[in-house]
Amino acid sequence: MKSIYQKYLSRVLLLLLYSCTTMLAHAYEDKYSLFVYDNTIKIDRKYYRYYVELFFDETENDEIVLTNVKMNLPSSSSPLEFGIPERLNSKKVTTIGANALRSASKYNHFNVYLPNTITRIEESAFEDSGLRYINFEGPISYIGNRAFKGTRLQEIDLSKGVSEIGDEAFMNCYSLKKIDLPKEMSSVGKRAFMNCEELKTINWPNIHVNDEVFRNCVKLDSFVNKNEYSPVTAGDYAFANCSSLKRIKLMTPIGDYALQNCSQLQSFQVTYSGFGIGTGAFSGLSSLKYVYFLISSNCYFSLTEFPDSVKILAGGRYYDSTWWSEHVKNEVKFKDIIKRYYLLKEGDISSVLVWPFTDYCPYYAGGIGHTVFSNEIVDLVDEGSNIRAKKIGTTSLCPFDDRECYFAVVDDIKPPCEYNLHVRLGDKISLPTEYRGIDIMSVAKYTTCNDVTWYSDHDVMPIKSGSIDIKFVTKDDSILLNTYHVEVAKVLPTSSITLRKGQSQKLSLNWNQDSHLQDITSFKSSNDNVATVDENGVITAVGPGSANIICTTKDYIFSNYDTCKVVVPNTEMFGKNTLLQNKGGEIQLPISEEDYELYTFTNSDTNVAQINSSGKIECINTGTTTIRCFLKETGELIASCQLIVYGDLSLSKSQLRLRKDETASLTINSDIDVSSLASWKSTNESVATVDGNGKVKGIASGTAIIQYISDDGKVLAQCEVMVYGDALFDKKSIVLEANKTYKNSITADVDYSKIAQYISSDNSVVTVDESGLITAVASGTATIKYVLKEDPSIVLGQYDVKVFVNPALDKTSITLKKGDAEQLRLNASIDLSDDVVYESENTDIASVDAQGMVTGKTPGTTRILCKLKDDLSQVIAQCVVKVYGHVSFGKESVVIEANKTYKNSLTTDGDYSDMAQYISSDNSVVTVDESGLITAVASGTATIKYVLKEDPSIVLGQYDVKVFVNPALDKTSITLKKGDAEQLRLNASIDLSDDVVYESENTDIASVDAQGVVTGKTPGTTRILCKLKDDLSQVLAQCEVKVYGHVSFDKESVVIEANKTYNNSLTTDGDYSDIAQYVSTDNSVVTVDGSGLITAVASGTASIKFVLKDDPTIVLDQYDVKVYENLALNKTSMTLKKGNSDRLTLSASIDISEDIIYESENASVASVDAQGLVQGLKLGTTRILCKSKTDASILATCEVMVISENTSIDKVGGIYYEFSDNGEAMVTNAYGGILPAGMTSLPQSYSGSISIPEQVSHNGMNYHVTAIGENAFNGQSALQSVSMPNSVNAIGASAFRDCANLQTIQLSNSLTKILDLTFYGCSSLKNIALPQSIQSIGKSAFRDCQALTSLMFNKELESIGNYAFHNSGLKSIDLSLCSSLTSISPSVFANNKQLTNVVLPANLSSLGYGAFDGDESLSEVTFTTTTDHLTVSNNAFRGCTSLKKVFIADLKSWAQTNFMNPSANPLSMAHHLYLNGNELTKVELPQGTTIINNNAFYGFNSMTSLVIPSSVTQVGDNIFYGCTLLWDVYCKGSVPPVYVGTADASQMNEFFRIATLHIPAGSKKAYTNEEKKFWSRFTHIDEVIVSVTSISFNKSRLTLTAGETFQLVAEILPADASNKNVSWRSNNTNYVKVSAEGLITALLPGSASIYATTEDGGLVAKCFVTVIGNPSAINDVTADEGEEERVVYRLDGTRVHDKHLSPGIYIINGRKVVVKRVK
Q1: Is 1657 left (phi over 0), alpha (psi -120 to 50) or beta?
Q2: Whole-number Å distance between alpha carbons of 913 and 1379
Q3: Poorest-confidence range of 161-165, 461-465, 1351-1355?
Q4: Is the pLDDT of residue 205 over 80?
Q5: 1419 within 8 A of 1392, measured Cβ to Cβ
Q6: CA 274 to chain centre
Q7: What does the mean pLDDT of the chain come to?
């Protein structure tokens, strides 16, 4: 064997060193071309050149035009970047020529950087290319037709001066999300942005929207003119199919189908200037509710486009109300949208109109006049669009003829108050009608959600006990004024009543007696056997126990329940005044389990008996005690009795023997007098009687039991009485052979065994013992008598005996021909001719008459028996008789395989075994034994004959034999489609075509005919068996048949997130498990296992197919899989005013917009449509869920808060607040938390330090600051520090985004979430502490916080979103306290250049894609995880080039972790693994580990040996890759773990060649013949014998009861010992025996030791066993205190060595002993 140094050297020499060339840009100049990228790369020993070459031309103006590009780019997930030079040959590059990069690198993405000299991009310049990004440094004035059509652009900025965009310039840019246009432009061509499906918003210059410009822009939700007060004209199909569009202003003319199918558009304004509106311009607007026409011309038009459901409003200078009334039936007047109820604070101003348009209010289009809507209380302001409260009071005005409005003006509107009221059922409550001293019932109301009866709008009567909330609100439900919490008392004041049986009591009720509830009350008992109740509430006790009386009050549909418990004590539970019981006995009083809590008991002498709470009495010692029962609740005595306990009680005699009419007396032996409670009884007075004093009298022969019985029928003691009569023998004479015995049965009317005896008249002939058994001594005769012992002259009975010797027939055998006869005669010492009979054992073969004449009947052999007449079971002589006849074989011919045996059945007319024999005609072909069993020797034919032994020429019968070898079918397996057929043929050494049949094991799957033609019937697997016709149990050959049919998947397509799993159910018409399998078309996207479970690997699409194993080209069914990554909603939270809306959009690595649904958790607060449009409906909060259509799983969420539409924004103390009418304030920005259209950041409103107060005053009211809204401080680059009060419980998304100079922030301790983008771009932030209450950190929350070097993560943290700390300055991360953090999202800590060490949480189950990607300073990673199934996604530690150490807490958890690629495992770069601080080089996995998962030890080049326990059943991909010092692998299991990886294991062949695999002795075949060919790759395989080192029992000491068994278990170490055989023995088998499997059986009281000895090494384990007697079968032995015994144990089996024993129960010398105290 090589030394370790030789191994190391050979391994090092075989390591391959790869080098990569760097990307070099060759900037040499040529007249017409330039290489901007040129690189040569070596792949698989070949060199490939990749380059980008640009071609130029010169114009007459000495300018350069880019004319063409040649590219050859490598495949890459990251786009290649290159720039266009400013000058070439000292001339400016000004133009990208036509078709210059058309179709360039279509399948490989690239980015282009333009110089600021470029002014024109000609037509089709980049059309259908792989362009992903392009910058515009200079003022490009012209973009030609189709210039960027079909590119991969995502955003583009043209705001620096482009004036003209040609036709189809950006058409089919499916990824384009954003484009910035300048405010002034001359034109945008037709179809310029058509089919830009991701484009969401656009700020449009004040120019005409040409034909089809935005057609099919399905995500465009807002079209805003940069001059927002100027509408624009639109051409044909300009916005057709913009299904997300919600906001637009247009001016005529409007082209055909301009807004066709804008299905989300609810309202818009049209300025009518006299020009036409095209055909179908407004068709398909399914959500449209309002249209406002601003009439600026006196020319009118048709409005037939709009259905009746659309409300038309009109106004303007040329508005003609008469014309509109005549021509527009669905016109809405302003009176229809006016508010009717007003509660105002004096001096407040409120809106008049309920107007659907948020950005304009057409007051002048028919507004309300001042005189109509004004008086001393209120008047109209702001040109009639608002109402002002002038004076405190109430009023009503009628601005229109049929519409009255109501007003209440008060001095102040305070936050709502809460009041508590306590009443009874039926009480009337009068609630106030005034508020702030003013009766406001004209504008207010009372409401409740509980059961209550209203008498008026403010008088109520509660009709149900419990709590009722009544709210005082305005009639439009907009303002909550007060809340009244009403507590209604219970109906029944008493919770329990105690009554004696027969007693009654009426329940008193707690309610208003004047109310009508008295008449609508009912009562019910839960148990009428205990208590009943009538309709008036009168309760009557019926029987012992407890019951609930239920009182029900009803008022129409309302009902109220109350209960009262009734207890009826059991006064007769003892049954009588005195009870009798034996010591050790028990008495259970008749108390049900539910009544245990009702009673308590006392006992006058607990040494005599004890009683528990359930009424169970245990009798302990002899004596008398008194038991009393009391009611637990009242202490009242309800029953008592005297208990007498007796000990040893017996009669003076246990047996009596009497003659008829004879008498005898019995007396009682007892340690306590029980005569008053017992009496005498005879069980059979026809045999014996007994009087009251115990005098017994014999009546007739027989047996009776005299019993001493307690008055409750219990037998205390008894005596057996027998009365005697006469006896008779069964036989009067007996014939018996000398030395034989016999017992003549005797019949007597009683048992005489005690008073009589047997005697013989001649003991030289026959003797008799005391049981009546006689023994024949010698030939002769004698008499046996049965006499009384006291007087042998009195003979009760007798019989005669004849004894004989040497009986024999004159012939011992006879051979007869059928029908012949012969005489037999008996010879003996005494004449027995009258005492014997002859009998044939088979009268069908031979018969015999009374004189011994034998006649042959049927061929065969039998015996003639000579028997005694008196005892036919005794044969005294016999003769064998043989009779001859005819025979025949069952088969005339037999077919048999060589080396097989067969026995042909033989039919005879008798038994020929002694007279005939079998012979073979050719012993070289077949032999036959004496039983007729043939043995096939070799291929050929022969004959088997049955002949007479005495004359073999006489053949009684014969048959032919055909012997064959090597039978086989021409096919061993067939795969058939349902309905197809195929022929099978049998090949053998001799023709067997007429000797075989074919049979299918499952004819439902496949059938076969007599010629071997197989037909597929039903999908599945079966076998076709070829059998011998003569022996259908013998299968000569077989063929496996697989039949397939039709299958279908449940779903045709599945959408799934990367690293997730899913199982698409499969419906089949049969069992396909043996014939088909699942495959994936692209394992880099999705994999599938044998059960159909798919695992999403990476973004992309693939198909899962169900194919035949034998022919994978046959696809039974398939479905498509779409795998996405980096899924996110554009918002994770939003704040909406009631009635407002906002849109959610979903982004992912792949388009799944058609595969999701949106859903609101509370649709009454906010609704959401299929396109993600969220509408605020009422005040409150909810979540919008984005779900997968595949399995309804939640993909992303957005928290929505709906606030009042009356919320106002104002600046107080230098901070903007949004004030809500619920008394709360939220910090916001000047625009209410949004970034206004056209702004990329907010104006600078804050600088230096800001301290947000807990409370702020505004307009005379105090508001609590509870939140910081979205975008509140977005982009405030001068802001340096912020502190906030603990009243703040929420911070909105992007609240501090891009606060570049923010250094310090003090967070509220009430926060539970940090939302998305909250501190994104706070590059100076370095002082922040997360509150202990934080549970989640949103996506990109601290992204680009490069000054943030440390952060403490609390234990409540449950989730961290994608990119949360991407590109931050963290130096160390400790997540060990985060016990609830089970998943870390993708790229959370990626690109942290200063990060040096990381500690992961213990309960981690998944680590996301690229979690620490690019953390180039990371040197140590600690896994505290102990979970069994951690998954680490791709590239989690990619680029962590400084990694040196990986620390783990659990080796089993590490081995079972699924590292989805090598870069997911930090060990691939660190190469050193530490367990609990100690470096591992020799690794031994713990028993219980079940799998070594993918890449678990990838790159572990410091590991020298690995021990794999027998519990490991599977191994994954690359587990030994890069383990360059791993010489020895020890597999402890005799069955090899199954390789379940998908990678080619051959890439580890060099490891397999050098390392040695050590396996248990005898398992090499299993390891080398495995199906997956993994372990068999080892060149060196060493079988190891592992010696036993120890043996121990699971019990070292046992105490068992006689008859009990126990299974001892012997543990042998090590667990992988090669020989675990043991032998068992007991050193005293009289007491304990043990089986070969270690099962112990206790036999008799005593003790023994059980030993187990290992076959390997002779190691011994011992268990000491004590056997005690069954307590019910052992009499108690009393020993005085201090008495010394030889061997003493407690009942638990422990040995007692004390000389003096304290009172108790012990096992002494194997018997149970009670040690008492000596008095």
Answers
A1: left
A2: 87
A3: 461-465
A4: yes
A5: no
A6: 69
A7: 83
Alpha carbon distance 955, 493 (integer Å):
113
pLDDT tier at 1710 (50, 70, 90 boundaries)? Answer: low
Residue 288's SS3 state is coil
Given the structure tokens 């024109």, which residue do they identify?
Answer: 120
1077 class by beta-carbon count within 10 Å (0-12 exposed, 13-18 middle, 19+ buried): middle
pLDDT tens figures, 733-748:
888 888 888 888 888 7
What pTM, to 2 d.p., does this model score?
A: 0.40
Each residue's pLDDT tens digit, 1395-1435: 999 999 999 999 999 999 999 999 999 999 988 889 999 99
Residue with tokens 């005339």: 892
Other CB atoms closer than 10 Å to residue 852's CB: what's the count?
20
What is the identity of the amino acid at 863?
R
Q: What is the number of residues in the chain?
A: 1719
Residues contacting residue 1172 through CB under 8 Å, at least 6 positions apart: 1143, 1144, 1145, 1146, 1158, 1184, 1186
pLDDT (0 to 100) of residue 19: 25
Cα Rg of the chain (Å, integer): 54
| Residue 7 dihedral angles phi and psi, to the nearest 5° | -60, -45
Phi and psi, residue 846, nearest 5°: -150, 145
| pLDDT exceeds 60 at position 365 | no
- Average pLDDT over every residue of 1372-1399: 94
The answer on pLDDT for 240 being more than 90 is yes
Which of 142, 201, 185, 203 lies closest to 167 in space, CA to CA?
142
Residue showing tokens 């495992």: 1465
| Token couple for 92 | 């400016």
Q: Tens digit of pLDDT for each residue in 975-1015?
A: 888 888 999 998 888 888 888 899 999 998 899 998 999 99
**3-state SS of 746-766?**
EEECCCCCCCEEEEECCCCCE
On whether the CB atoms of residues 1442 and 1471 are closer than 8 A, the answer is: no
Distance CA 211, CA 205 (A): 16
Helices (H) and strands (E) in the chain, counts: 6, 156
Count Cα atoms within 13 angstroms, Cβ side, for 1561.
Answer: 8
Exposure string for 1411-1448, b = 16+ CB within 10 A, e = fewer = bbbbbeebbbbbbbbebbebbbbbbbbbbbeebebbbb
Question: How far, in Å, CA of 766 to CA of 740, rounded?
Answer: 10
What pLDDT, in 10s, does the model give residues 1166-1214? 999 989 999 999 877 788 999 888 888 888 888 887 776 766 778 888 8
Tens digit of each residue's pLDDT (9 = 90 or more) over 1497-1520: 999 999 999 999 999 999 999 999
Quote the strand ranges of 1452-1531, DSSP E. 1458-1459, 1473-1475, 1478-1480, 1482-1484, 1491-1492, 1505-1508, 1514-1515, 1528-1531
φ/ψ of 762, rounded to 5, equals: -150, 100
Q: For residue 359, what are its two tokens? A: 């950005």
Rounded CA gap, 1509 and 631, in Å? 66
Beta-carbon contacts of 56 under 8 Å, excluding residues fewer than 6 positions away, are 32, 33, 34, 64, 65, 66, 67, 88, 93
Residue 189's pLDDT is: 93
Q: Which residues of 675-688 are buried (b: 16+ CB within 10 A; e: fewer)?
A: eebbebebebeebb
Is residue 257 within 8 A of residue 283, CB to CB? The reply is yes
Q: Which residues is 1037 bridged to in the sheet?
A: 1026
482 vs 171: CA distance, rounded Å: 60
| Sequence-ordered list of residues with C-beta below 8 angstroms from that of 1579, at least 6 positions apart, any chain | 1552, 1553, 1554
Separation between Cα atoms, residue 512 and residue 1024, nearest integer Å:
90
- Distance (Å, rounded) from C-alpha 1231 to C-alpha 1218? 10
Q: Which amino acid is at 1052?
A: E
With contact defined as beta carbons under 8 Å apart, do 1470 and 1421 qualify? yes
Give the tokens for residue 338. 């006016």
Q: Residue with structure tokens 């206790």? A: 1642
